[in-house]
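S.,

Sequence below, as promised.
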Amino acid sequence: MVLESVEISTPAEESPAVSWPAIAAGAIAAAAMTLVLLAFGAGMGFSAVSPWGNSGISASTFQISTALYLMVVALLASALGGYVAGRLRTRWVGVHTHEVFFRDTAHGFLAWALATVIGAGFLAAAASNIAGGASPRLAPTANVSATAGAGGPLDYYVDALLRPNPAASPNTTDMGAARREIAGILTKGIGDGDVAGPDRTYVAQVVAARTGLSQADADKRVSNVIEQAKTDLDNARKAAAKLSLWLTAALLFGAFAASLSATQGGKVRDFNASLTDG
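The prediction came back faster than expected:
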């Protein structure tokens, strides 16, 4: 009796086109590198800015350097994440080189996208801090309003109904209430574009009663403060718009860097694997 051995060849299992573990690893690496570089940049930036007018760098230079550093952070972190995603992805056997290039590019892009989603919470917190500190001259006013109990949408109208005549009976004892009321008037007026005439006159009367200035000097001081506040808010809006544009450019550069680095990482992985197989 003769026994014959028969070998049955089964086709190799095709590797999936998307390697999510590699993408997740690249995204985590990119997010961690972003956090490290942002912390380093924050330390370097705070040490470069000086409160004295003739030392340190100017505000415009600081804004430009910050924007450029955002570009560098996005480039380095995204390149690292894309390279990690390319090196760690599953090797594709029997796939055309053009398809491999496309898949590697997609892996880098997906790693960048996942890292961007992970960092969205951190970016939102940073944007909130930037918006809160963009106009430091207005921060004490907002704090006074909060601590004095303001914040209701009808507070301004209630104060208008109960508004006294400072010229006839000046109140020099309750400074907190006066600051809260003036803060509400300025907040609503500047938010609407300008402080209304009656409100401006009332604020000037309160200033005159509390400071001892003449009515003309109080009117001039109120006008100067309102114009300064409007200028600061306008500058803050312009700075926020510029920051948004620079951030958009940094994100686009990051996507490109991640995609390109993933292709390089994939080529290195396939080359090392071919040497091992050979």
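Residues 20-135+247-271 form one domain.

Coffee later?
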